[in-house]
Write a structure and sequence with these properties.
Blueprint: H1 20-30, H2 46-51, H3 71-76, H4 85-91, H5 96-109, H6 114-118, H7 126-138, H8 142-153, E1 158-159, H9 160-167, H10 171-183, E2 188-192, E3 195-199, H11 202-210
Antiparallel strand pairs: 1-3, 2-3
Amino acid sequence: MQTLLNQGTLAGQYHPDFKNYSLLFKLIAETSHQSCLILNSWELPQDIVTLTDDNAPIRCLKLPGLGSAAMEILREKQLQDEEQWETLINTYQGNPLWLKIVATMIKDIFRGKVAEFLKYDNLYSGEELTEILTQHLERLSKIEKTVIITLSQEKQLTGIAELIEISKLPATDVFKAIQSLERRCLIETEEQQQQTHFKISPILRQFVISNN
């Protein structure tokens, strides 16, 4: 689905050549029929957001990481140090493709020893994962890139007020950027002392730092 959407803008805006898809999806959503359409996307189209509510026949499901189920991937790769697998899975967000990439590298270079790999501070991305992360970042608007860079430089969870102060962006721009980044699933939220804080994954943080 993301191939229909524009790059360099906030999430969910159609490329000028594909705007008619918005009408198509609206008709599918509002017309009575027996069919089921499943869309898979890196980001949520804005018109899909407006068509979704508790009483509508449209649902948006965010696919989480595999969690402990990802251990099967590491088992198939015959990795060692099973007590360290959870750390490896969390570092790569339980993403099956990312884990397959890093598991292959651990098997090739470290003979399957996960503990030895985790001794190194620099997380492995490799060419395939680097290309995927590059594609994600190229889709971002200017204000989203500013917020992502700001979060990557902060070791602690960061709240709205801190983001506004450090990024030097107007509050409205920070709000827009956060909402858009959440629709892209590039930031995570956590509640602390009745306040919402934001962070990015370790692998994304390292990639952003190394490319800025």
